[in-house]
Specification:
nitrate assimilation, Growth Hormone, Chain: A, MFS_trans_sf, membrane
């Protein structure tokens, strides 16, 4: 193909393709998102050591959990807007460079207050999700965009599980060369920080904004060029006025919001409730995140298949069913006091939680074709709102982690019912138009 001709959006996912703009962005984006989890949650599996070193109370640990996800709400909205303005390539590069700084410097903390501030700053890295989804959305055609979004997000989210496994080993390596645990956790965080900084250069030099090229070049030819066609002035207000967006907001809070909450507390949970060592607890907690290697993509695939057959109604019903089983699974997990059963039930609800993540974003591109970016940003922020609300349950010294998880399970179940009610509604005309429009695009490609 002549490289001077504009490239079309990819209509299939070829995992062995590392040359085309779409698949190159696919691979670099999920790897970058994967590494972002090392920065965002790298400190989580080390919290038993940090808690002892800084003398943190349960309430303070809860506040730290909230801080790690609260600022992400605003960061996602800002970077979602910036993607349209300067493109996902520059956005990700800025985020990686800026986000690496507090990750590398959190080891300077010597009090609860300073640690809380660094943890708050690190939370900005959570905006990586919006950039990831944005970049994938502009690279792939409607027939596979749900699967592509779910796969890159799922493989990236897998970093949350690998982080819980690897960071205790990094700490152990520093202890092995003579540092105390109180010093080792500080040096350990330099590792993901340096990784993020290096990835900033990789993203800048190895990706492009759209299949056609970078926004800066394309706007020299067309000053009004937008990566996402159809986004227009007032689209954000239109998205805000759509009740379906707010149900998806709640749904994503009930799945991704709970996922990052579990990433934050899983190691502490297994250390405190099953008297495990840091490495053993980290490995078990890490299996929760490792489910992303297939589960989130599976949710996107089910969503796409249901969408082709039943339109938006099918996509939302699939989401509601996954959320229902997630909520029931969390309640069962919270009652387990035998380690093997706790692990089994954790993996069970993890499966449905991560499929819910993928199913949610198989719906998002089809809610409002003129406000895809706005819908994506609002729903993405919902994930972190859910995490913040869940975090408050872990701040009380009078409520155990088990009781908090059971309450979360009830809340997720309620949200699943709302999703199923939405799916049962008859009128979803706009999505049917969008899904129909996908067919001519495929024929042209």
């Amino acid at each position: 193909m002549d490289q001077n001709l504009p490239a079309a959006k990819a209509t299939k996912i070829n995992l062995l393709d590392f040359k085309s703009p779409s698949m190159r962005a696919f691979h670099i984006t999920w790897i970058t998102f994967f590494l972002c989890f090392f920065g965002w949650f790298g400190i989580a599996p080390l919290m038993p050591v940090v808690r002892k070193d800084l003398g943190l109370t349960q309430a303070q640990v809860g506040n730290i959990i909230i801080a790690s996800v609260s600022i992400t709400i605003f960061a996602r909205l800002v970077f979602g807007w910036l993607c349209d303005k300067i493109g996902p390539r520059i956005c990700y590069t800025i985020l990686l460079f800026v986000g690496s700084v507090p990750v590398m410097l959190i080891g300077l903390s010597n009090s609860y207050e300073s640690f809380l501030l660094f943890r708050l700053a690190i939370g900005v890295i959570g905006a990586s999700f919006v950039i990831t989804q944005y970049h994938t959305s502009v690279m792939f055609a409607p027939n596979v965009v749900g699967t592509a979004n779910a796969t890159v997000a799922g493989w990236g989210n897998m970093g949350g599980g690998v982080t819980l496994m690897v960071m205790p080993l990094v700490l152990a390596a520093f202890v092995g060369v003579g540092y105390t645990s109180e010093i080792a956790w500080r040096y350990s965080m330099m590792v993901p920080g340096i990784g993020l900084f290096i990835m900033g250069f990789v993203y800048y030099f190895c990706t492009q904004d759209t299949p056609e090229g970078n926004l800066s070049d394309l706007r020299k030819k067309d000053a009004h060029f937008k990566a996402k066609k159809g986004d227009e002035k007032g689209s954000f207000l239109k998205a805000l006025s759509d009740y379906r967006v707010w149900i998806l907001f709640l749904a994503y809070g009930a799945c991704f919001g709970i996922e990052i909450t579990i990433d934050n507390i899983a190691t502490l949970y297994f250390v405190d409730n099953f008297n495990l060592g840091l490495r053993e607890a980290g490995i078990i907690a890490g299996t929760f995140g490792m489910m992303n290697i297939f589960a989130r993509a599976l949710g996107g695939i089910f969503g796409d298949k249901a969408g082709k057959k039943f339109g938006l109604k099918g996509r939302i019903i699939v989401l509601g069913i996954f959320l229902l089983f997630e909520g029931i699974g969390i309640m069962i997990f919270s009652t387990m006091d035998v380690l093997p059963w706790a692990i089994a039930t954790m993996l069970l609800f993890a499966l449905f939680l991560k499929m819910s993540n993928g199913a949610t974003y198989s719906v998002v591109p089809f809610i409002n074709k003129k406000a895809i970016g706005a819908v994506s940003g609002i729903v993405g922020a919902g994930g972190n709102v859910g995490a913040v609300l869940a975090g408050f349950l872990f701040t009380s010294n009078d409520v155990s982690y088990r009781d908090s998880l059971f309450t979360i399970g009830i809340a997720v179940t309620v949200v699943s019912v709302l999703s199923l009610v939405l799916g049962a509604m008859k009128k979803h005309e706009e999505v049917n138009q969008v899904e129909t429009l996908a067919e001519p695009e495929l024929k042209a490609a």
